[in-house]
Amino acid sequence: MSTTRIRHPYLDHPGPIPFAHRGGTADGLENTVLQFRRAVDVGYRYIETDVHTTRDGRLVAFHDATLDRVTDGAGRIGDLPWDDVRHARVAGREPVPLFEELLETFPEVRWNVDLKAEQATLPFLELLERADAWDRVCVGSFSEARVVRAQRLAGPRLATSYGTRGVLNLRLRSWGVPAALRRSAVAAQVPETQSGIQVVDSRFVRAAHARGLQVHVWTINDARSMHRLLDLGVDGIMTDHIDTLREVMEDRGVWV
């Protein structure tokens, strides 16, 4: 269990946090209301998703920049009006949801949101303000600049994780190399390895905890790796295989 001080209400959870990555993608219905509901029904209260904006400014929960890979539609979401996107079906079955719909449909869920496009930032923050959902969302992105801009606009009420540059600097700090770190982040959300380089080890976890940061690792889909990371003291795991992570955490007595 993490010994770090809770720096934002979003992180107020007893024990390691289980995240359903895109709701759990193993069933091929990623980022759909049906899959999110399945995750909630088996006990998940933290769900990772992604946000894009349509041409007319609607915020959709969808990973790719285009509809082509997982739906029966086609085209770049940013170039399409919502009226076109809403007719696409994931795996030919399920509609693409609006993020606002998810906040309303799952009021007990906390969302880890990857802002996939710069133009999504302002509409996203405006939605959080309207919905008073600041305590229910943590924002991340590969782009450190995008996260920094969102944090600057929203202030401390918005929970954020490090982007790629912040993670790199934290890894350097864990090796004793001086590197600047953004103080406003509450978590480092990282892969276990990147390009063959080990990111998460005991030194990395200690360096994060020493700075009051939680460590959330993605995307971990096998029980052995889940156990190993929990043994290191990570504070959260994101998985496509939501049943496997639940079983691991139940075995360890940390499933809440």
From TrEMBL:
Domain annotation GP-PDE: ranges: 16-249
GO biological process: lipid metabolic process
Top-level division of the source organism's lineage: Bacteria
PROSITE patterns: GP_PDE
InterPro entries: GP_PDE_dom, PLC-like_Pdiesterase_TIM-brl
GO molecular function, one term: phosphoric diester hydrolase activity
Stored PANTHER family: GLYCEROPHOSPHORYL DIESTER PHOSPHODIESTERASE, GP-PDE DOMAIN-CONTAINING PROTEIN
Protein name stated in the entry: Glycerophosphoryl diester phosphodiesterase
